[in-house]
Amino acid sequence: MTATIIDGKAIAEQVIEKVKHRVTKLQQQGITPGLTVVLVGEDAASQTYVGSKERTSKRLGMNSTVIQKPSSISEQELLEIIQELNAAPDVHGILVQLPLPKHIDENKVLQSIDPQKDVDGFHPLNVGKLLLDQQGFIPCTPFGIIQLLDYAGISIEGKHAVIVGRSNIVGKPMGQLLLNRHATVTYTHSRTPNLKDFTTQADILIVATGQPSMITGEHIKPGAAVIDVGIHRDSDGRLSGDVAFDSAKDVAGAITPVPGGVGPMTIAMLMENTCLSAERQAE
Ligand SMILES: NC(=O)C1=CN([C@@H]2O[C@H](COP(=O)(O)OP(=O)(O)OC[C@H]3O[C@@H](n4cnc5c(N)ncnc54)[C@H](OP(=O)(O)O)[C@@H]3O)[C@@H](O)[C@H]2O)C=CC1
Ligand SMILES: Nc1nc(=O)c2c([nH]1)NC[C@@H]1CN(c3ccc(C(=O)N[C@@H](CCC(=O)O)C(=O)O)cc3)C=[N+]21
C-alpha cells in the first residue's frame, strides 16, 4: 500500500481562490487589504519566503510591501518601524520575518505589533486567545495544516495526534488547534525518550523539528496521516523535509510532500489572515 499524497499546492490554490473573492468584495467597499513584511538581514531562505508572499498578495490584488533592513539595525529602530505600521490605516497585516538577529529581543518585537494586525498570530494576546478558543489570529503554518486535513477528508475529532516539536510558531499552536478540534494530543520534543513509542501511536503525526529525514516508516502507524513541516535545501538546491518521504509513504495512509505540502498552505493562510484583518477593520 502506498499513501495518498496530500497536494498542498492544489489545496492552497483553492484557499487563495476563496480569499480572492473576499478581496474583491473589500475593494468594492474601497478597501484594499495591505500586508507589510519586515525582513531583517540577508538570509537566503527568508528572501525566498518573502518573495513568494509578495507575489501571492499581488496576484490577489492586495497591497504588499517589504521593508528590508540590514542585520545591524538596532532594536529601537525596528520598534519604531513597527509603531509606524501600527498607526498606518492602509496596513492591515504586519509580519516580522523570523529569526531576528541575536541582538534583538524577539519577544519585545512581537509584543510591539498591534494584535489586530498580527497576521502571524505570534503576539501573546493572540496566543492566549488560541488557548481559550477565542477569535484572534491563528499562526499560518498550523492553521494551514488544519485546512489540509479538512480538505483531504481526514477527521480530527477523537483521533490521537502526536506532534514532534514544540516551537512557538509551529508545534505548540498546532497542538492547541488540534485539541480545540477535539483530538487527543501528545507533544514530543528533543527530551522525549523512545520517540518511536509515541509516534507509532499517532493517527495524525505532525513533524516540525528541523531535523532532515528524522522520521522514517518505522516511526509511523500503518495508515496514519503524516504532515511534514520541515524544509531543507541541500547543496544542489533540492528540497526535503523532516520525514524520509520514500520510507514513510509505504506505511502512512496519507502524507504531505516537500515541496508542495505545508509550505504553500502557510502562504495561503497568511493571505487569508490579512484579508480577515481588513474585513474586521472595515466593520
Ligand atoms: N513549511 C512551513 O511553512 C514552515 C516550515 N518550517 C520548518 O519546520 C521545521 C521546524 O521549525 P520550527 O518549529 O520553527 O523549529 P525550532 O527549531 O524552533 O523547533 C524545533 C523543535 O523540534 C524539537 N526537536 C529537535 N530535534 C528533535 C529530535 N531529534 N527529536 C524530537 N524533537 C526534536 C525541538 O525540541 P526542544 O524544544 O526540546 O529543543 C523543538 O521543539 C524547520 O525545518 C523549519 O524550516 C517552519 C515554519 C514554517
Ligand atoms: N514571522 C514568520 N512567519 C512565518 O510564517 C515564517 C517565518 N517568520 N520564518 C520562516 C518560516 C518558514 N516559512 C515558510 C513559508 C513558506 C514556505 C514555502 O512556500 N515552501 C515551498 C517551497 C518554497 C521554496 O522553493 O523554497 C514548499 O514547501 O513547497 C516554506 C516556509 C514561513 N516562516
Overview of the structural elements:
By secondary structure, the chain is an alpha/beta fold. The protein folds into 2 domains: 31-114, Rossmann fold (3-Layer(aba) Sandwich), CATH 3.40.50; 139-263, Rossmann fold. The chain has helices at residues 8-28, 44-59, 75-87, 106-112, 124-131, 140-151, 171-180, 195-199, 245-248, 262-282, and strands spanning 4-5, 34-40, 63-69, 93-96, 160-164, 184-188, 204-207, 225-228, 232-233, 239-240, 254-255. The model has no long low-confidence stretch (mean pLDDT 97). It binds NADPH dihydro-nicotinamide-adenine-dinucleotide phosphate and 5,10-Methenyltetrahydrofolate. Residues 141, 164-167, 169-171, 188-192, 195, 208-211, 214, 229-231, 262-263, 266 line the site of NADPH dihydro-nicotinamide-adenine-dinucleotide phosphate.
Q: What's the CATH topology label of the largest domain?
A: Rossmann fold
Unreliable sequence segments:
none
CATH class annotation of the largest domain? Alpha Beta
| Mean pLDDT, all residues | 97
Output the structural class. Answer: alpha/beta
